[in-house]
Structure formats: structure tokens, C-alpha cells
Amino acid sequence: MESEVVQMSKAPIYLPISLLDVFEMIEDEKTDQLYVEYQNSLSPVKNFDFTLSELNRKNFYIKQEYIPKNDQEKPL
User: Fold this and answer.
1) Helix, strand or coil for residue 65?
2) Which residue, 41, 52, 54, 42, is CA-closest to 33?
3) CA dihedral 47, 57, 41, 32 (to 10 degrees)
């Protein structure tokens, strides 16, 4: 019986990010990678307007693509 090799998809991974890092990403114009937790799901930050008082009560995430270990660059 042959074993089947299953390839993991390159689905995105969402990692929590600090508010300071959120501001840095906004400054660097990388808002397309930022997501906010809204109604038990993640939504792109660019779809929302926040007041300053709301910011510290929100959970922010950064979207990263999954890269299999074999495809990652090896350190020199």
C-alpha cells in the first residue's frame, strides 16, 4: 500500500500584533496585512474607522502566508 503525501496549502496565518506594531504598520502603509477581531471573526482593518478610545479594546492581527519548512530560506 502506497502512502500518500499530503501537501499543506499556503493558507494565511493570523498572528496577534501589539497596538504599537499596528501603528508602525499603518505608518509603513501596510494596512492590507492588518486585521481586527470583529463579531468573532477577523476583518480587514481598512474596512473600519476607530476612535482612539476604542483602539486599546480591539484585538489586532497580522496576516502572514504559511511557508512550508522545506521552502523557507536557509540561514547562511
Assistant:
1) strand
2) 42
3) 40
CA–CA separation, 61 and 58 (whole Å): 10
Q: Scanning the structure block, which residue is given the C-alpha cell 497580522? A: 62
Q: Which residues of the chain have pLDDT under 50?
A: 1, 3, 6
Enumerate the H helices of 1-76 as residue ranges. Answer: 19-27, 52-55
Q: How is residue 71 written as a grid cell? A: 521552502
Q: Which whole-number Å values give the CA distances from 60 to 7, 38, 67, 73, in the listed order?
A: 29, 10, 22, 28
pTM of the model: 0.69
39 φ/ψ sector (left φ>0, alpha ψ -120 to 50, else beta)? left
